[in-house]
Write a structure and sequence with these properties.
- The chain is an alpha/beta fold.
- Helices cover about 45% and strands about 15% of the residues.
- It is built from 10 helices and 10 strands.
- It has helices spanning about 20-30, 40-50, 55-65, 65-70, 85-95, 130-135, 165-170, 195-235, 245-265, 285-310, and strands spanning about 5-10, 35-40, 80-85, 110-115, 120-125, 140-145, 145-150, 150-155, 175-180, 270.
- Strands 1, 2, 4, 5, 7, 8, 9 and 10 form an 8-stranded mixed beta sheet that branches. Strands 3-6 form a two-stranded parallel sheet.
- The longest helix has about 40 residues, at about 195-235.
- The protein is globular and about 55 Å long.
Length: about 300
Amino acid sequence: MSVKKVGLVLGSGASRGWAHIGVIEALEQHNIEVSVLAGASAGSFIAASYAGGGLDQVKRFALDMDWKSVLSYLDIAFPRSGFIEGKKVAELIELFTSVEQFEDLNIPVYMVATDMITGEQVTLSEGSVTEALRASMAVPGLLTPKLINDRWLVDGGVVNPLPVDVCREHGADFVIAVDINSQRITKEKHIPKGDKWEKGAARMEKKRLEVITSWIEKYGSTGKTVSTKIDQWFSREEPSPHIFEVLGSSLNIMQKKIEEMNLLTHAPDILLRPRLGDMSFFDFDHAERAIQEGFKCCETSMPEILERFA
C-alpha cells in the first residue's frame, strides 16, 4: 500500500450523522485502515465512538431509537444560553465513549469547535473526550455553549463543517471526507394525498402526541401550557415552519455555503456525499436509512478509493 496515512473527515449535520457509521463499515469491509480522524459536531461524536471502540454500540442504539427516546435526551429547561441544557447529551456521549481521555483513543481524533466570542476555529484533541464533544456539538441557540480553557465554545459546523484542513495538518496523506450537507432540505408546500402522505401524517401525529405527553408528565400544569405551543409546532394546519425546522434548515444552508468555500482551498482526495437531502435536523429515528445510504455511497466510490491504493 503506497499511501502511508489515511485520514477520515466526518462532517456535521445532526441526524444525518448516522450515515458516517455506514461509511466506516464500508471502509472496514475493504480493509482500509484509518490513521487520523477529524470531525465537527455529529461527525465528532461518530469519530470518538469509532476511535474508542464503541461504534457497534452506537449503531445498535441508533437503530433502536424512536422519537420518544430522542425526546428523553432533550433536557429542555430554557436556560439562559440555549434551549437545551445538555446534561443528558453529555450522559449519552459517555455511554458510547468509554475512553475518557483523547490520549487513550485507538485512533487520534481532532474535533472542531467555534469560539463564540472571537469566531475562531478551535481544534480539540487533548483532555476530556466528553467535554470536547459537548463543545463540538453545541448547536447555537439550541444547546448551551461549553466553557473550555476560558473560551465559550459552540458547534464546530459554524466555522468548519467539513474539516479537511485539520485532517491534513495532522499528518493524513490521503483524505476521505464525508459531506452530509450536500443537499438542502426542501419540502413541497402542497403534498399530494395518498399512501405516502397518510403514513407521513400518521408519523407526525404520533410525534406530536408523544411530545405533549412527555411535557405534561415532566412539568405538570406548566407542561400543559408549554405543550400547547409545541402542539402548534407539529400542527399540519399551521403553514409556517416550527422552530426546529427553522434552526435545522438555516444551519444546513449556512454549513453548505461554508463547505463550498472551504472545498475550493482544502479539497479531499475522495469526497463522499450521501443522498440525505430530505432528512431534517431532528430525524434521529431514521438511522437505518442514513446508515444504509452512507454504506452505499462509500461502496459506489470504492473502486476509485481502492485504485489509489494499488
